[in-house]
Amino acid sequence: MNKKIYAFIVLVIALAALIAPASSSAQPKTQVKTVAAPASANTLLPALPASDVAMFVDVQKILNDALPRALAADKPRLAQINTEIDSFKTRYGIDARQFESVAVGMNFVKRSETVITTDIVALARGSFNAPAMIAAARIALKGKYLEQKYGGQTIYTFNLNERIKLMGLLNMRVSDVNVVALDANTLAMGHLSSVKAAIDARAGKGRISPELVQLATRNPNALLGFASNVPPYVAQGTGIDNEEISKSIASIRQAYGSVGTTPTGFDLQMIARTEKPEQAQSLSDSFAALRQFSGFIVAQLPADKGKLAQNVIDSMKVTTAGSDLQIRLEVAQTDIATLVRIF
After folding, report:
1. Is 225 a domain residue?
2. Do residue 203 and residue 237 come from a single domain?
3. How many domains does the chain fold into?
4. Disulfide: which of 14, 127, 139, 145 matches 36 by Cβ 3.0-4.6 Å?
């Protein structure tokens, strides 16, 4: 997954925790199941503004199913994570379990021939009260914010500028973030231009392509689904020196897939769509070549990481169908537990 996207999903939860209503801290610590607003990807993703990349994350499935399954053989680690979630709630006033789903939209921006950046917006929906969270933030941050009107809504730019340890799993520095309450249970956060675009999309202007939404939700039971239209210039930012591999990557015009669960673990399915069948075959050949050289890389890794990497490589299946390159990767629960432990 693109690191910027992953970090932004983390930021969605982290910011919400920072700006939770003060009254939340008075709630009992006993975990209770709350009734949330409808949070289906089929309703949240279409609310995104026009984007090159669309992704949804089912937060509830990750917290209540994927995480316990991945750490079924490591009860102490699972208990530690749950403790960190509760500590995070105690400190910031909100439980990450209140989030139902997150939809992320991203646009590639070509700043120059060699510089490609991204503008990102995330929509977070759950059982929280979005306007109340923002109101509490204005008090908690003691004036460290700006506000502006746009499309009948108030956008707040919060200057957090601090390092956050999210649920004990990831340390990250959060600087400025723009946020608006789109409705009672939905926040939009991200770059200012993208947050404005989300407000426009809510009014029916400039919404995301229905095709991307359909591709990202092909697996309705996924933990995570994604789809992307890939501009030709994006390949310039891969940093790959090999001309043949760079050429193969540049032939990708669309990609989509999902991460889900299986009876024995987890799986990743991805389709990379090119313009011509021969380009898909060239991509397949590039994967085959990389697989042949993977042994040299694996041999340089520590034993546990090397074994994990080899298991991943061995389970990867790459096929072609017309102009599509199809990739499927199955990861056993034991390997996921190893992944969490060593990384």
Report:
1. no
2. no
3. 2
4. 127
